[in-house]
Each structure stands twice: as structure tokens, then as C-alpha cells.
Amino acid sequence: MNFSRLLKTTSALTSRWLCSGRFQSTSAAAQKLVDVSVDSKTGVSIVSLNRKPVNSLSLELFKEFCGVMDDLESEKVRGMILKSSCDNVFSSGLDITELYPHPDEDRFHAFWLWFQETWIKLYGSSFPTVAFINGHAPAGGCVLAISCEYRIMLPYYKIGLNEAPVGIVAPDWVVNSLKSVLASRKAEQLLTSGRLLDTQEAFDIGLIDKIVNNEEEALARSEEFFSTFDNVPKLARALTKQQVRKNEISKLIKNRSNDAKLFLNHILRPETQKIIGSYFKSLKDRKK
Ligand SMILES: CCCCC/C=C\C/C=C\CC/C=C/CC(=O)SCCNC(=O)CCNC(=O)[C@H](O)C(C)(C)COP(=O)(O)OP(=O)(O)OC[C@H]1O[C@@H](n2cnc3c(N)ncnc32)[C@H](O)[C@@H]1OP(=O)(O)O
After folding, report:
1. Which keywords describe this protein according to UniProt (predicted)?
2. Which end of the chain is more exposed for a tag (fewer CB within 10 A), N or C?
3. Cα–Cα distance between 36 and 83 in angstroms, integer?
4. Cα(165) to centroid(ligand 1), Å
């Protein structure tokens, strides 16, 4: 089966969840969680995550984001820049309220499948992708950034995969995305320590590609990246990218339901609930 078909193929169980209209709240449908605009100078699409205050990643945001990715694929855009509309935060990662307290099993299953779907569409997109990390990008926020091809970040923010300190093990598709950016040893150090790096440290180890001081510079650096493909036929570029990334994507596509079940079981364990609960409480207490 060719890769484009594989990307569209999913198990019957998975498609039942992805296609069902369940968990579509009317207020969420009315509020735009993902904004899209086009840079008139360059023809590049700018996709801004817009779930205030910190772009925590909910089921509704994932669904809307996947719809945007489908539109960009069919419009055959020149490139995409992923950024945030929230002050100081690119994305604060998975919405912890999807995980705690004791989530509804059906909703969590759907949530996890849409998280996978987001990764598949972003990591496997045919067009070039840049993450403009214009704020903190912990955990799931970092996953979005490393799924893009190129990362540009503002100074003095934090990025990393801080799951281990809260007793969580990242799934292999997340680990492998990180290993597609960093050498295996660096990826292991980052994951096992769960340390969040500041912008300069992230640049020094190669987690990000450029540091910029403002959005104008970010757009200019993104344009330099996109223009490296100007003389490459679009289809050849897309197929080559997908050739490089297809093993990881195929592995997840074949294992989606199982991956979701594994995480559901893990999240529902009383010990995990307890750890996430105290972590969430500490987040809330910080401001008191
Ligand atoms: C923790 C359990 C993890 C379970 C994961 C399971 C499997 C995963 C394995 C790997 C795959 C990748 C998945 C990763 C998991 C995650 O993404 S879990 C989320 C982890 N995120 C974080 O640890 C970041 C937490 N947030 C912060 O550190 C800060 O909020 C910030 C991003 C640095 C911003 O700081 P700022 O001062 O600007 O804002 P506040 O802290 O005041 O936040 C405002 C408001 O928003 C609430 N909030 C923040 N983050 C989240 C979140 N991720 N989910 C839900 N709510 C969040 C915060 O509590 C404040 O609420 P208020 O006090 O009621 O106003």
C-alpha cells in the first residue's frame, strides 16, 4: 500500500471514534480554537492555536486542528507556520482536565485517538512545516513542535518533555519523533530527566533551529527555510519527506487502538491519578 493511502487508512474501530460526532460541544464548535491566515507576501499559511489562556490541548482543539490540516493538504499550500495566539505560551501540553480526575473512558479514548491523528497529520504532512515557538512549550506542546520540520523560538521560554517526573512514560511515537530531531543519547537524556530547557539550551543541543527576537524575524527565517524548496518539485519533496517518516507513522497506524488502551489503563491507575492530581494542584497553588 502506498503511503498516502496508508495515511488515509485506519482501523474500523478507530474510524468509528474519529468519525462520530460525539464530544462536539456547541460552545466549542462556536469558538474558534485554531485560526488560519495567509501571509500575503509569501503565500504561506499561518496556523495559530487559540485556546486561551495557555493552549492546553483538548479533544475539541485536536479535532479542529485536524480539520485545518485537511484543508491545507487539499489547498496544496506552500508551507505552514504553527504558532500560538496566547501570551507567553506556545502550548501547555495536553489539557490535564482530560486526564484528571478519573476521565470518562469513552471520552479519553476519543481524546487519545485525536491526539494520535494530530501527530499523524502534522508529522506526515506533505507541505513544509515550521513551528514558531512563541512561548513555553512543555510536554504535548513540545510534541507539536518536534512534529514540524523546522523550529524557531523566542528567547527566555522553556521547552521539553517533562512527563517522566510526573510518573508518565512517553509513547514510542513521541520518543521516535524526538529521535528524529536529536541524536538518541540527547533524546534519552532529555526524556529521562524530564528537564525543560530554556531557548538557548534548546538551541545548543539542536532541539530548535533558530532563535529570533520577534515575529517579524520569525517570518523572515521561516521564509528562508521554505525557499530552500523553491526549486524542488512539490511531489518529490513530499514523497521524500514521507519516505523518511513513514516507518514511525505506519507503526502507529497499525497500533492505534492498542496505544489508546494502554494509555487509558495507565491514566486510570489510582497511583497515576494521584500523581497527576498533586501535579495539577501544585500548578494551581503556584499562584496563591
Ligand atoms: C501531568 C500528567 C501527564 C499525563 C500524560 C500522559 C501521557 C503522555 C505521554 C507522552 C505524550 C506527550 C504528552 C504529554 C503530556 C502532557 O502534555 S500533560 C501536560 C503537561 N503540561 C505541563 O506540565 C505544563 C503545565 N503548565 C505550566 O507549566 C504553566 O501553566 C505554563 C505553561 C508555563 C504557563 O504559565 P503561566 O504562568 O503563564 O500560566 P498559569 O500556570 O497561571 O496557567 C493558567 C491556567 O491554566 C492552567 N493550566 C496550565 N497548564 C495546563 C494544562 N496543561 N492543562 C490544564 N490546565 C492548565 C493553570 O492551572 C491555570 O489555571 P487557573 O489557576 O485556574 O487559572
Report:
1. Acetylation, Fatty acid metabolism, Isomerase, Lipid metabolism, Mitochondrion, Transit peptide
2. C
3. 10
4. 14
- Specify the residue with its C-alpha closest to ligand 1, atom 5: 168
State pLDDT tens for residues 111-137: 999 999 999 999 999 999 999 999 999
The amino acid present at 51, given as its one-letter code, is: R
What does the pLDDT read at residue 5?
60
Question: Positive or negative CA dihedral for 139, 145, 149, 150?
Answer: negative
Cα 36 to Cα 77, 81, 83, 132, 167: the distances in Å are: 12, 10, 10, 14, 36
Distance 92 CA to ligand 1 centre (A): 5
Q: Please tell me the total count of domains within the chain.
A: 1
| Residues assigned a catalytic role | 94, 140, 162-163
Q: Does 43 map to a domain?
A: yes
Compute φ and ψ for 158, nearest 5 degrees.
-120, 145
CATH, residue 110: 3.90.226.10
Which domain range does residue 148 map to? 17-216+234-287
The ipTM estimated for the assembled molecules is 0.94
- Closest ligand 1 atom number to CA of residue 140: 17
- pLDDT at position 27 over 80: no
Does residue 100 belong to any structural domain of this protein?
yes
- CA dist 259 and 112 (Å) reads 9
Ligand 1 atom nearest to 94, measured from its CA:
17
Distance of alpha carbon 89 from alpha carbon 66, whole angstroms: 21
185 located within any domain: yes
Residue 12 belongs to a domain: no
User: Rounded to two decimals, what is the model's pTM?
Assistant: 0.94
Which residue type sits at 62?
A: F
